[in-house]
Description:
The complex is a heterodimer of chains A (153) and B (180).
Chain A: H1 2-21, H2 29-39, H3 56-70, H4 75-86, H5 102-124, H6 135-152
Chain B: H1 2-27, E1 46-49, E2 55-57, E3 65-71, H2 76-92, E4 97-104, H3 108-117, E5 123-127, H4 131-136, E6 143-147, E7 153-158, H5 163-179
Amino acid sequence: MNGRILIALALLALAGALVFAARPHDITADERVDQITAQLRCPVCQGLSVKDSTSETARQMRDLVAQRVREGRTDAEIDAEFRAAYGDWIFLAPPVASWSGLVWLVPIAVIAAGLVLVTGRLRGTGAPPAAEPTSPDVAALRERVAREEAAEG
Amino acid sequence: MILARVVRIAVVVGLLGLVVTLALAFRRDPHDIRTGTVNKPAPAFTLQRLDGSGQVSLADLSGKVVVVNFFASWCLPCTQENPALVRVYERYRSSDVVMLGVNYQESHENGLAYVKRMGIAWTTVADDDGRVALSYGVFGPPETFFIGSDGVIAGRHIGPIDEETLVTAIEKLRGQASSR
């Protein structure tokens, strides 16, 4: 009995710790800078974010983002500042609501079109339905059965 | 079957669109990349002169054709394009065209030594924290921006620039300025 109580208490403590860890909390300025720079492409790197790059350009961009965060700018305002200079290219994930958003939509459209084509092709190449026997065929078969039964006696 | 036909037509149209897009894209000059700043008002700036003799503000050059060239001594293509810049500067030095060199990610000492070594006589300024380069969407030196007398960036050239490209862009902007 005591063991069960202990297990229940341990589970309760674990759940409480999880709830405490996952509680909504105010994001710090540094966390905001990390979040924003993780979405920005480093202009002098190969596929690296500004957050992950050690280049001088990335450092300058991080400093600029940090300053804008300190000034109280919103994420959208900071994004707009970089978009104004570099276009949508500056974002590692192109915005859906833009021309570059086609990179998200086109593959989905192509896959859907391919599925439709494959489905149509599979239906088209299935075995053709057996034709209904005609009356003369039925009559001939009956006659043949009758003949064979008579021969077997 | 009708759906399959529609899809087939859509695939053909899509492929045609891709071919047309690629054909148009390959015809474009890869140095002429139209990012966010082209056809927009040039971002304002005030920067310290490399030689320490005061500041230069873009606003002070209002009404003139301005050629802004981002450069650095550690940038080999910058040294390659420099003779063309020198010739063009000499050609327009007594006109309404202003050339402005923006030293990029470099100490003042190194930038100034380069300016003296390369015979750069036009105004050069230091972009110490890189903010001006970022506001212009610079990827790396050399990059050249052409700002019209209306203060709008009419074009940009990524990589080393030659004399013909410089003169063509400048003359186009001068023509637009005189027709206003």
